[in-house]
Amino acid sequence: MERKSSKVLMQDMTEGQPLKLILGFAVPMLLGMLFQQFYSMVDTVIVGKFLGVDALAAVGSTSAINFMVIGFVQGVCSGFAIPVAQRFGAQDYSDMRRFVANSAWMSAIFAVVMTAVIGLLTWNILEWMQTPENIIQGAYDYIFYIFLGIPATFLYNILSGIIRSLGDSRTPVYFLILSSLLNVVLDLAFIAGIGMGVEGAAYATVISQVVSGVCCWCYMKKKFPILKMQEEERRLSRIHVGILCGMGIPMGLQYSITAIGSVVIQTSINGLGSIAVASVTAGQKVSAFFCCPFDALGATMATYAGQNVGAKKLDRIESGVKSATIIGCIYGAAAFAVLFLFGGVIPLLFVDAAEAEVIRQAHQFLIINSMAYILLVFVNVWRFTIQGMGYSLFAVLAGVCEMAARALVGLFLVPIFGYVAICFASPFAWLLADLFLVPAFYSCIRQMQRRFFGTERPASGKLAGGRV
């Protein structure tokens, strides 16, 4: 079943073959994520080529704290979008609009508070992370302006999340591609043209995100009459705010808790010197590009699970998870083969060939991480499915598993084994999360079966009527 609103096609994921639906929804998202990583890589390439290894290390040293803060924003927005997807699946459009309105109110409040608090603490955080003295000023110049752009990050992520919840995964991609190209142009203009330092890369990122957010806003107003609200639907509602916070805050904390482990690892990397920081920065940028399909599958499963929970079709959720896992595993094996063969060449995008040690260590990082990509498939697909079903606490606990694993490596293994321990931190974190997520998923399914049908083995995947 497909629902049309004006000229916009809103995909109903409660009908049709799961594999086809998941691929059709994930591929446009993947293109957008690839462009997003593309301009992130361009940031790194331009900084490394025009400003040198120390500037590259300065930007790279902020990756963990950037992930902790911006990841919280993305997680909160993803959580806010889940009730929208569930109400859309249940065809309760009035309540869906109330969730849209209240998610906008809450996003604005979160954005103001986070920008003020984090902006004041940025320098202290960098000192706590033992950022090397020769790069700490550059790190501050970059990340401070990224954090000032938190409202822009909220704007794009909440609007694109709502659009995807209604089944439209293509439109946010178009705006992301536009902002990616704009980011590249602004990077070159600010750094290569005007001669700015690393802050030029931050300006380019924030401005581009503002543009993509505004584009999403204009598009929604024009193309989604289903979101046209009555006065009472725009008001703050304690019930709706409670549900949104119950979904969004745990998902945000999941990212931030996971990132705490990354902060511990980054602190350990900083202690190994700027060469190690630059090596991991180059490796992470390449790995992030290759991990985009896993992220796209995860985001797809959140919407897919949300809509099917709204329609009470739990059998489709199980079949969808299996299909997405198979897709991810096939891709993970291919990605490992590519990085094993060419992972020593790709880092040359970021540093000169003379930086032989940086290139060698980056290649080592890529080989070890890509060997464990199949573990990452389960982390993304199964965790986001659990989130889409509404069990955000389980996702948080998976984040705790990742945090504990990375903290263990950073605190105890890096002092003994050095750089090689850094390379195993993420694979170990993914493994520990998987050991929790797989049984947690089946526990969630059983709970929902009892909730909807009074049994763990319903004769049908759907009951008529009712609300989630």
Structural account:
This protein is an all-alpha fold. It has one domain (27-453). Helices cover 81% and strands 2% of the residues. A two-stranded antiparallel sheet has the order 1-2.
Short structural description:
The protein has about 475 residues and is mainly α. The chain has one domain. Helices cover about 80% and strands about 0% of the residues.
Topology:
Elements: E1 2-5, E2 8-11, H1 18-51, H2 53-60, H3 63-89, H4 93-128, H5 136-148, H6 150-165, H7 171-193, H8 199-223, H9 231-234, H10 238-271, H11 274-290, H12 292-310, H13 314-342, H14 356-370, H15 373-388, H16 392-417, H17 419-453
Antiparallel strand pairs: 1-2
Helix pairs in contact: 1-2, 1-7, 1-11, 1-12, 1-13, 2-5, 2-11, 3-4, 3-6, 3-10, 3-12, 4-5, 4-6, 4-10, 5-8, 6-8, 7-8, 10-16, 11-14, 12-13, 12-15, 13-14, 13-15, 14-17, 15-16, 15-17, 16-17
Descriptors for this entry?
2% strand; disordered C terminus; mainly alpha; single chain; two-stranded antiparallel sheet; 468 residues
